[in-house]
């Protein structure tokens, strides 16, 4: 168990800057999720933390100790790879024991450790099998077991669930959460799946183009995204965006006008902006309500996706574009229906031209 | 001929199958399978007064025990095993080393090294034999001068001309030429090992040597086994190098004689000895059996124990 | 220094390792090329220069083409090269065509005898055709083919087919079944399926097979020596072997003859090395 501190970490491959100076504080026992689109540098950052890649610039502290240049094993980290990376020629026991064997631990100790971890992961009946004789889920567990036996200070997970099928992914996600509760270990977890990030993370780090876009708790990111990028990343289905212009500047209530000329009132602080400034209006599908009569807009349903408990309506708004609405599953809508819906001013988000969010005035945190 | 799959209608005769298969089968059968079987058959016959007669295993008994034959036969066989041993002990380890170095991550110019080191393998053994014969020639003295320049001049000798060193020298020439093959095949296997597996080893604390020993080596063992059997077959089939450098007599005093040259002499004759088709066939049969046993051992023992790994 | 920088990784602990790796590989590259280069540069030098300064490049004093003139005068290198070319091209072409047809038939169609034929071809990969030389020679004599290039072509096809059938079969298996099934649904004939759909898809594998088949044929001494030793049918390898054996004391000629044999192969190798190495490393041969 340990804290991890990143101080202006940079990584350059040849002439290409991949990470532009990452600062991050991770507390002991925290489950931190690094999330971002592919190529945003999240996996590279994980490899820098693991010691598999050299840090170009900046300082990395694990447990208050600077570990730049230290080999992976000496950093006290363990890593679970996306491909699991099990040694194909070793059985499950040997796979899990390998790290301890290299460290020169005595046989009885190794055996105890491996069996203990295997029991915890319910793979103790598979110890004699080779990786190719295991199912995907079982391989996954072996990979986690291999990390556990070494009692690392920090666990690094690189998209560990992405090779599992959907149902197994949900199940393993839950188990990972429980395992973290049990081990109380510091975990750094890379994923591109926002559901994994929201459900597992104590803290989410949203990365974009080699920079940290925002750090915060799942709910904080949901309610107070710092940028349009974060707002679009967190939440499913994605936040809708519409172009608008500010027509009334204020610190509490603001009015904007959409391209079609509809006027919308928004509970956002627009002080510092000029009248007529272009902004992006953000509307979460789950916040648009067909029963709300403020800020009403009408449109025509082009497609309905039924998910059972809820449905997604794809609504075409003349002169504005398409919006996605999340509605109750028991509904009577059909494609082609005209609908009117509204959204409360304090549920709306505004983003400046450069993507920065304008401060929201809302009671919820 | 075609098994009916699921139809009631009778299928027309599969002429296309005949058309596709016959030409290859005909040529392969006539000029490879038949001659091989015929050779095995022929080895059981002898020629007496111009008449071919069945003699059973007499040719083999002659080869192995007769004073005129057995010495040459055993000499060639033992030499051939020495030739093979040198390849196994020198060529394949060097090939392995080069492959490992070539596959170092982020190595610049690896493609160039690979292409250049493989170059000699492309050339004819005959040409390579002559090239080294010139280089090692005391008349030209390139090797001698080179050794003097690094202070080892007094070790120089006419290696190819001495009974004690000729075979070893020729083995080294062959090793020099064919190092590229184990290198390439092992290199290809190393490239196929996913980076993640090696990374996992590094995270587990393995140093480069341990990574090689515990992770990479077990994964390339199947390739090494295959390289070994290829070396075995090629070595017990070798002829050109000896013939080019030392001639059919595999001098000095047959010290470089291999099964291939022995076969050639037996079949075509040399000096005063008449060539004999049936004795030649007997030698070929023995070579066939040696290679067959080698291949079988490979298939049944090594291949079965070392599975190929899927990643 | 900036030049070096590009080659070496940033951290110092990697630099020394990287230098060692380059040093060993470079050393071995020199070992691999030195003998060949020595022969080639000396082929262009006068006899005196060959002995006086074997490592030096030819200069205006020592440069001569006398060796090459002698080789071309005293032996028919043009003819030998032509023979080699004809034999190699025809044999490789037929190995590819017949091998592809057989590979297709053996992997696509189920029929009795399929296994035994596949096995027969597989054996040929390991068992050298040379072992049947005694019978091949008498067969060729009976067929009146002794001392003809046809004899060589036939033997080389038989020699090349097993590996070709094996590699191409492996490749055919990777072609999606839907492709042929779709064609059959459209009532395309089996011949058309093979020649118009499969054969074009086999091209990359055939390139690999071509290189693997070509090299042993071009370089072979055994069968030219035994089946076609006559002056008219000599291949380049046999031609060089005979020439060098005959003029062993004429250094200019010997070096020139070797150079004439080496250089074309090296040029072709440089052109096709990418293809060859891709073939070797793609796992086509296992």
From TrEMBL, chain A:
InterPro entries: AAA+_ATPase, ABC_transporter-like_ATP-bd, ABC_transporter-like_CS, ABC_transpr_MalK-like, ABC_transpr_MalK/UgpC-like, Mo/tungstate-bd_C_term_dom, NA-bd_OB-fold, P-loop_NTPase. This is Sugar ABC transporter ATP-binding protein. It comes from the Bacteria. SUPFAM superfamilies: MOP-like, P-loop containing nucleoside triphosphate hydrolases. Keywords: ATP-binding, Nucleotide-binding, Sugar transport, Transport. CDD domains: ABC_MalK_N. The keyword Plastid does not apply. It comes from Marinomonas profundimaris. One of its GO terms (cellular component) is maltose transport complex. PROSITE patterns: ABC_TRANSPORTER_1 (PS00211), ABC_TRANSPORTER_2 (PS50893). GO terms for molecular function: ABC-type maltose transporter activity; ATP binding; ATP hydrolysis activity. The keyword Cytoplasm does not apply. It holds the Pfam family TOBE_2. Residues 4-234 form the ABC transporter domain.
UniProtKB/TrEMBL annotation, chain B:
One of its GO terms (biological process) is transmembrane transport. The keyword Hydrolase does not apply. Pfam families: BPD_transp_1. The keyword Transport applies. It is a multi-pass membrane protein. Gene3D superfamilies: MetI-like. Its main location: membrane. It comes from the Bacteria. It is found in: Cell membrane. The chain crosses the membrane at residues 12-37, 83-103, 115-132, 168-193, 213-236, 279-302. Residues 77-298 form the ABC transmembrane type-1 domain. This is ABC transporter permease. It comes from Marinomonas profundimaris.
From TrEMBL, chain C:
Residues 81-272 form the ABC transmembrane type-1 domain. SUPFAM superfamilies: MetI-like. This is Sugar ABC transporter permease. GO terms for biological process: transmembrane transport. It comes from Marinomonas profundimaris. It comes from the Bacteria. Belongs to the binding-protein-dependent transport system permease family. MalFG subfamily. Gene3D superfamilies: MetI-like. It is a multi-pass membrane protein.
């Amino acid at each position: 168990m340990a804290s991890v501190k990143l101080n202006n970490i940079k990584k350059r491959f040849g002439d290409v800057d991949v990470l532009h100076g990452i600062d991050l504080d991770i507390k002991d026992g925290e489950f931190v999720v690094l999330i971002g689109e592919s190529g945003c540098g999240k996996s590279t950052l994980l490899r820098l933390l693991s010691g598999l890649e050299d840090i170009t610039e900046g300082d990395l502290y694990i447990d208050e100790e600077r570990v730049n240049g230290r080999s992976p094993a000496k950093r006290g980290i363990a890593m679970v790879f996306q491909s699991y990376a099990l040694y194909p020629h070793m059985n499950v026991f040997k796979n899990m024991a390998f790290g301890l064997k290299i460290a020169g631990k005595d046989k009885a100790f190794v055996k105890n450790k491996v069996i203990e971890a295997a029991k915890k992961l319910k793979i103790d009946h598979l110890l004699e099998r080779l990786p190719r004789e295991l199912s995907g889920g079982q391989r996954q567990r072996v990979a986690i077991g291999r990390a556990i036996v070494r009692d690392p200070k920090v666990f690094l997970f690189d998209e560990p669930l992405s090779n599992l099928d959907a149902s197994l992914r949900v199940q393993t996600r839950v188990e990972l959460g429980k395992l973290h509760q049990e081990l109380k270990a510091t975990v750094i977890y890379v994923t591109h799946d926002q559901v994994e990030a929201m459900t597992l993370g104590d803290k989410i780090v949203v990365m974009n183009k080699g920079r940290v876009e925002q750090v915060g708790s799942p709910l904080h990111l949901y309610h107070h995204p710092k940028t349009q990028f974060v707002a679009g990343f967190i939440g499913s289905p994605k936040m809708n965006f519409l172009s608008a212009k500010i027509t009334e500047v204020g610190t509490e209530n603001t009015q904007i006008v959409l391209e079609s000329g509809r006027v919308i009132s928004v509970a956002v602080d627009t002080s510092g902006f000029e009248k007529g400034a272009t902004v992006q209006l953000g509307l979460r599908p789950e916040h648009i309500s067909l029963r709300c009569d403020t800020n009403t807009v009408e449109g025509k349903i082009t497609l309905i996706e039924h998910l059972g408990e809820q449905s997604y309506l794809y609504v075409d708004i003349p002169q504005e574009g398409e919006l996605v609405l999340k509605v109750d599953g028991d509904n009577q809508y059909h494609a082609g229906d005209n609908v009117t819906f509204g959204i409360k001013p304090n549920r709306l988000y505004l983003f400046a031209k450069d993507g920065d969010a304008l401060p929201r005035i809302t009671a919820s945190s | 001929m075609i098994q009916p799959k699921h139809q009631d209608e009778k299928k027309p005769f599969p002429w296309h199958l005949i058309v596709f298969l016959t030409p290859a089968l005909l040529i392969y059968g006539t000029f490879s399978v038949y001659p091989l079987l015929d050779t095995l058959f022929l080895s059981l016959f002898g020629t007496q007064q111009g008449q071919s007669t069945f003699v059973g295993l007499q040719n083999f008994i002659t080869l192995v025990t007769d004073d005129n034959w057995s010495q040459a036969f055993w000499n060639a066989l033992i030499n051939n095993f020495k030739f093979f041993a040198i390849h196994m002990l020198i060529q394949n380890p060097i090939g392995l080393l080069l492959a490992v170095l070539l596959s170092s991550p982020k190595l610049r110019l690896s493609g160039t090294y690979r292409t250049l080191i493989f170059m000699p393998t492309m050339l004819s053994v005959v040409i390579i034999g002559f090239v080294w014969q010139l280089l090692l020639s005391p008349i030209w003295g390139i090797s001698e001068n080179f050794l003097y320049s690094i202070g080892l001049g007094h070790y120089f000798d006419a290696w190819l001309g001495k009974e004690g060193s000729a075979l070893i020298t020729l083995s080294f020439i062959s090793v020099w030429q064919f190092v590229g093959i184990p290198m390439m095949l092992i290199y290809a296997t190393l490239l196929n090992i996913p980076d993640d597996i090696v990374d996992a080893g590094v995270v587990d604390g393995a140093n480069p040597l341990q990574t090689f020993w515990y992770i990479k080596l077990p994964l390339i063992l199947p390739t090494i086994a295959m390289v070994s059997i290829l070396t075995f077959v090629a070595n017990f089939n070798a002829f050109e190098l000896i013939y080019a450098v030392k001639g059919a007599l595999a001098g000095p005093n047959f010290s470089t004689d291999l099964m291939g040259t022995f076969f050639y002499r037996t079949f075509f004759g040399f000096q005063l000895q008449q060539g004999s088709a049936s004795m030649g066939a007997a030698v070929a049969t023995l070579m066939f059996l040696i290679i067959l046993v080698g291949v079988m051992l490979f298939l049944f023992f090594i291949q079965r124990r070392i599975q190929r790994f899927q990643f | 220094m900036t030049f070096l920088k590009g080659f070496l990784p940033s951290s110092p602990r990697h630099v020394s390792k990287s230098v060692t790796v380059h040093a060993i590989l470079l050393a071995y590259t020199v070992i691999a090329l030195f003998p060949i280069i020595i022969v080639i540069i000396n082929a262009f030098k006068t006899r005196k220069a060959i002995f006086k300064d074997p490592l030096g490049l030819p200069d205006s004093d020592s440069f001569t083409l006398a060796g090459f003139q002698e080789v071309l005068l005293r032996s028919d290198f043009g003819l030998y090269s032509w023979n080699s070319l004809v034999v190699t091209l025809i044999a490789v072409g037929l190995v590819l065509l017949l091998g592809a047809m057989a590979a297709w038939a053996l992997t696509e169609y189920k029929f009795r005898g399929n296994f035994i034929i596949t096995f027969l071809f597989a054996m040929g990969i390991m068992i050298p055709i040379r072992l049947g030389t005694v019978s091949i020679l008498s067969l060729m004599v009976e067929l009146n083919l002794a001392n003809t290039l046809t004899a060589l072509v036939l033997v080389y096809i038989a020699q090349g087919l097993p590996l070709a059938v094996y590699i191409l079969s492996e490749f055919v298996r990777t072609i999606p079944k839907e492709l042929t099934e779709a064609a059959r649904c459209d009532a395309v004939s089996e011949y058309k399926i093979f020649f118009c759909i499969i054969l074009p898809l086999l091209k990359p594998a055939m390139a690999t097979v071509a290189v693997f088949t070509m090299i042993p044929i071009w370089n072979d001494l055994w069968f030219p020596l035994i089946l076609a030793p006559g002056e008219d049918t000599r291949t380049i390898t046999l031609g060089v072997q005979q020439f060098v054996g005959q003029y062993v004391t004429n250094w200019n000629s010997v070096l020139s003859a070797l150079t004439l044999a080496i250089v074309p192969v090296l040029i072709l190798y440089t052109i096709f090395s990418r293809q060859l190495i891709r073939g070797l490393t793609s796992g086509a041969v296992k």
